[in-house]
Amino acid sequence: MSLINCKGLSKSYGNKQALKQVDITLDAGRPIALVGPNGAGKTTLFSLLCGYITPTSGEVSLLGHKPGSPELLGRIASLPQDAALDPNLDVVTQLTFFATLQGYAKKEAKAEALRVLSLVDLADSAQQKPKSLSHGMSKRVSIAQALIGSPELVLLDEPTAGLDPANAKKIRELVKALSDKTTFVISSHNLDELEKLCDQVLYLEQGLLSQSVSMNESQHEDYLTLTMQQCEPSSLIEAVLDLADITSIEERQSNQFLIKHNSEEIYAIEMALLSLFKQRNWQYKAILKGRTLEEKLFS
Ligand SMILES: Nc1ncnc2c1ncn2[C@@H]1O[C@H](COP(=O)(O)OP(=O)(O)OP(=O)(O)O)[C@@H](O)[C@H]1O
Predict the structure, then answer these.
(1) Which of 112, 133, 262, 275 gives a 20 to 30 Å CA spacing to 211?
(2) Which residues contact residue 61 at a Cβ distance below 8 angstroms, ignoring those fewer than 6 apart?
């Protein structure tokens, strides 16, 4: 059974069509990214999946049930973009309350609240009230809330927006660590982050699902992405084009080049590049197989 199934899913707000005939079938597994420009319909899709709003037309099911069905209690969770905490209750009290709503008895609910708080490294802040938390800490409490009961599916709308780099990294590591048991669908504008975390990327644009990209395809692509420390682009391009099996090389960003080749022997190409750099005393930063997510989506 699919984890998420949407057929012809559309949503209009008045005469604004926010989602148009979206078809999605997703199975449980590695994290899935949802990407798209501002206003593309990502939050609308998340809200439909959570059952916060109803579709104008089309169908949506999670684990074979309609969003909001009692059968889904404790099995799916979400971190909304604008998640807010109750200002009057300390952190552990509110998470304990949410755990009891999922059916935990009072004592187990508190233990579960403390467990999810330690997952986001906030066990020491359990007694604090939301107003004494920083923005990043509040976000981590909301992520902890989404993890109560170890749900099978967790929808995270911009989970690391506003977090400092160290805490954003911790959240990425947490998602990775929990991905064996939980499937995460993550909406974010941070393509580097999604590239590190996700195996599949759904791209929404103006309410249409316009692309579905598998990150694993990169191993089979005839591309290399080369990042140099510093270089003279025209000399580099000329020298690389002289190597065997190179079809093209273009500078796509400052010091970053997309190389297309027609060799089955990817190592031979990499070795040829490394000897060229040694010969010319050029410093490189990275050679990546395939194209970056940004290249896949926007070129
Ligand atoms: N409650 C609403 N009433 C009217 N229009 C809405 C409402 N919610 C969203 N929209 C419109 O629907 C479209 C999709 O909005 P949505 O919030 O789903 O986009 P998004 O991809 O999440 O954007 P962002 O990246 O900026 O968060 C936008 O044009 C938005 O203005």
Answers:
(1) 262
(2) 2, 4, 5, 67
Q: Do residues 59 and 7 make contact, with C-beta atoms less than 8 angstroms apart? A: yes
Q: How confident is the model at residue 219 (pLDDT cuts 50, 70, 90)?
A: low
pLDDT at 220: 56
Domains located in the chain, CATH noted: 4-217 (3.40.50.300), 221-298 (3.30.70.100)
Question: Which of 176, 154, 178 is closest to 76 using CA atoms?
Answer: 154
Lookup result for tokens 């290399």: 224
Strands 183-187 and 153-157, bridge-based pairing? parallel
Q: Identify the three-state secondary structure at position 107.
A: helix
Could you tell me the distance, in angstroms and rounded to a whole number, from the CA of residue 168 to the centre of ligand 1? 25
Protein residue whose Cα sits closest to atom 6 of ligand 1: 13
Structure tokens at 83: 């998640």
Query: What is the CA(13)–ligand 1 centre distance, in A?
Result: 9
SS3 at position 47: helix
Residue with CA at minimum distance from ligand 1 atom 18? 41
